[in-house]
Design brief:
Shape: elongated
CATH class of the domain at 3-44: Alpha Beta
Strand order of the largest sheet: 1-2-3
CATH architecture of the domain at 3-44: 3-Layer(aba) Sandwich
Distance between the termini: 55 Å
Structural class: alpha+beta
Strand content: 15-25%
Number of strands: 3
Length: 89
């Protein structure tokens, strides 16, 4: 990680507006907030956060789909015709 990715809690309190502007402009991807020289939090732009959330949801859905494919039992499957008949589609 680059040293400019780190920001002390004190500097964040003094430079909040500038830090948020840097994230919004894309000058910084994230800031790792340090307190007593120990990482305590990560500050992200909304765009980065939303992209991360979307990717996590995609991974979760992919994992669920793969689990269903692996556990699929054709003997217990309902046919398309049966579902159409039952639900009138």
């Amino acid at each position: 990680m680059r040293t400019q990715d780190y920001l002390s809690a004190t500097d964040l309190s003094k430079k909040t507006s500038a830090s948020l502007d840097a994230l919004e402009r894309g000058d910084a991807e994230k800031f790792i907030i340090l307190k007593n020289n120990s990482p305590k939090a990560v500050l992200l732009s909304m765009e980065t956060y939303e992209a991360m959330q979307e990717e996590m949801e995609d991974l979760r859905l992919t994992a669920m789909a793969l689990a269903r494919v692996e556990s699929f039992d054709e003997k217990n499957a309902l046919s398309h015709d049966y579902i159409k008949e039952k639900f009138g589609a």
